[in-house]
Amino acid sequence: MRICPMPRTAAGVQSATACLVEGGWGTYRQFHPTFAFYAQQPNCHPMVAEDETGRVLGTAVSTSWGSSGWLGHVFVSPELRGRGLGKELTEHAIQLLRGEGCGTIQLIATALGRPVYDRLGFEVETHYHEYRGTTLPRAVPMAPLRPLLPVDLDGVLSMDARVAGEDRSGALRPLFMSGWVLPGRSRPAGIVVPTPWGGCLATQLPETVDAEAQAVLRALRSLSALGDEVWVYPTTENAIARELLSSQGFEEVRMIPRLVLGPRVAWMPQAVWSPLGLGLG
User: Looking at residue 39, which CATH number applies to its domain?
Assistant: First the structure.
């Protein structure tokens, strides 16, 4: 078994995607665009564990946002679990981020991976609350949100950096042009941006009013669906989002811990309706 960079090719993306899907973790619709995104982004460093035949039996992804970074999609095929491969992949991913200058490393933990992360010194910072609800028609009224225009780009990237506590502008620029913005008095007050893997990146600054929060939720229900259901992931600190989701009939399915290793990033969890991705923050 060897751990090596995932080839940034169609075959490399396919092999990594197949590992997750055949191992029972999601669908091709979800993970093919995810790993295709990783392959195209210089900030992202996908890696795979291969056996002697070249078959991919594990994955991990390190993403560097400068002084902080993220681990994502640490996955081991079911037949190899319990043999230390998950820990080995995680340690490789951490080492890579340390080499990139990341003093802080963050991740969103699955139940399978949590014991490994605890032993490596990660601590719980907060939780994302997974809500499941129904979609709305594509023609739902979006005001006061409006389509994001090139003139908005610097403002929304600045807002994202303020909310995330990280500069993700290089990866976000191509995604943002399909997004929607909630205008504020002098700067953007919120965004809803569909992602290629389904769902949306959605943030709303806390000073906005209830009618604007309802508009953000309408946009999420219209733009982020894959089928008849929509999934939203507000943080524990975003009480406005969680209360509104519950009042609109959304079901809270589970809580997912966000873990950190190293100094904590100065971010705004109270503004997060849904992250960019569970492997990206």
Answer: 3.40.630.30
Peptide linkage before 263 cis (omega within 30 of 0): no
* pLDDT tens, residue by residue, 137-177: 777 889 999 999 999 999 999 999 999 999 999 889 989 88
Question: Residue 207: pLDDT above 90?
Answer: no
Domain of residue 193, residue span:
130-255+265-274
Query: For residue 280, is it within any domain?
Result: no
Q: Quick one: angle between helices 169-176 and 153-164, nearest 10?
A: 130
Residue 225: the pLDDT is: 64
CA end-to-end span of the chain: 30
User: Which residues, listed in sequence order, are joined to residue 185 by a DSSP beta bridge?
Assistant: none
Instruction: Give the C-alpha distances (Å, rounded to integers) separating 199 from 196, 236, 280.
Output: 8, 19, 13
